[in-house]
Specification:
8 strands, alpha+beta, 162 residues, 8-stranded antiparallel beta barrel
Length: 162
């Protein structure tokens, strides 16, 4: 799932991640379940728009699907994403909707105050294993590792496309 991996890292940097997100290349992610079973808050309108990776050609479009969900197009792949915040960390659960497995990617993001840049980081599956079978277990692993520098894979940086 090279496409899912690429989308995982770049989405992480761009989505919400917002965008919603993703650690590519060895695909961090591909979870059967979201971090939270339902969105933890409504969408952040500042994430909606067109984003481009800094120093790269990856493009991401983030659109409002409804009050609590985003529709994300990342290099042609479609994702449904929503906020899955834990403690003071902004996470996104992003589900690939074009694949038969419809797996999730877990992303943390930081949106600049001015809303013009977005940093995405995908959760590393060595810290939160892909085999994690329920949202409660995923949440516990994430909370227990929030200060672990190995929790996240590569960071993707995006800027709002003008």
């Amino acid at each position: 799932m090279k496409t899912t991996t690429r989308a995982c890292r770049n989405l992480a940097a761009a989505i919400f991640a917002t965008a919603f997100c993703l650690s590519l290349s060895g695909c961090d992610g591909d979870y059967a379940i979201p971090i939270t079973s339902a969105p933890t808050r409504k969408i952040d309108q500042r994430l909606v728009g067109n984003w481009v990776a800094k120093g790269g050609a990856e493009k991401m479009k983030v659109r409002k699907f409804d009050d609590s969900h985003y529709l994300v197009s990342y290099d042609g792949d479609l994702y449904r994403a929503f906020h899955s915040d834990l403690d003071q960390t902004s996470f996104i659960s992003a589900q690939e909707i074009d694949s038969s497995g419809r797996k999730f990617v877990y992303l943390a993001y930081k949106l600049a105050i001015d809303g013009q840049s977005l940093d995405l980081r995908a959760v590393d599956d060595k810290v939160v294993p892909r085999e994690t079978s329920d949202s409660a277990s995923a949440q516990k692993l994430l909370k227990d590792n929030l200060h672990n520098p190995k929790l996240f894979g590569d960071e993707g940086q995006y800027v709002r496309e003008k």
